């Protein structure tokens, strides 16, 4: 299964969201999604990893505990990581054009059923 869905507000149907990032020592990073139109709570996500529009910085954080004998190898891994993030983003955008009717909860349930 491979699908994508835009988050929408359960109260007003808006798709513009605000991601409120909550960081607390000893806990996973949590994202509290808020409707940008009416301010309603939409969802909470717990993050395993986070990649921004600067994916190389995230990868550098992951790699800094590793030693590389070759700067070329480290650079190649960073470039591959950047490329994979960009490709996946394009794939998600194309999946969104299919306009799935399932809820996010249903998509997550199907993901676990497919395992």
Question: Which helices and strands occur, and which strands form pairs?
Answer:
Blueprint: E1 17-22, E2 29-35, E3 41-47, H1 55-63, H2 71-96, H3 104-113
Antiparallel strand pairs: 1-2, 2-3
Annotation keywords:
three-stranded antiparallel sheet, 3 helices
Short description:
The protein is of the alpha+beta class and 115 residues long. The protein is 39% helix and 17% strand.
Helical element count? 3
Q: Which regions contain 5 or more consecutive residues with pLDDT less than 50?
A: none
**What string gives the helices and strands in order?**
EEEHHH
Gyration radius (Cα, Å) is 17 Å
Q: Strand sequence of the main sheet, in spatial order?
A: 1-2-3
What percentage of residues falls in helices of 4 or more residues? Answer: 25-40%
Instruction: Let me know the number of strands.
Output: 3
Structural class: alpha+beta
Oligomer: single chain
Tertiary shape: globular
For the sheet with most strands, the description reads:
3 strands, antiparallel
End-to-end C-alpha gap: 10 Å
- Mean of residue pLDDT values: 82
Portion of residues in beta strands equals 15-25%
């Amino acid at each position: 299964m491979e699908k994508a869905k835009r988050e929408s507000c359960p109260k007003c149907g808006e798709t513009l969201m605000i991601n409120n990032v909550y960081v607390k020592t000893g806990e996973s990073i949590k994202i509290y999604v808020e409707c940008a139109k009416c301010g309603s709570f939409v969802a909470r996500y717990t993050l395993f990893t986070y990649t921004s529009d600067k994916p190389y910085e995230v990868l550098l954080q992951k790699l800094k505990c590793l030693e590389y004998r070759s700067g070329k190898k480290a650079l190649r891994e960073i470039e591959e990581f950047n490329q994979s993030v960009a490709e996946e983003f394009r794939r998600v955008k194309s999946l969104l054009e299919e306009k799935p009717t399932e809820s996010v909860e249903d998509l997550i349930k199907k993901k676990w059923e497919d395992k």
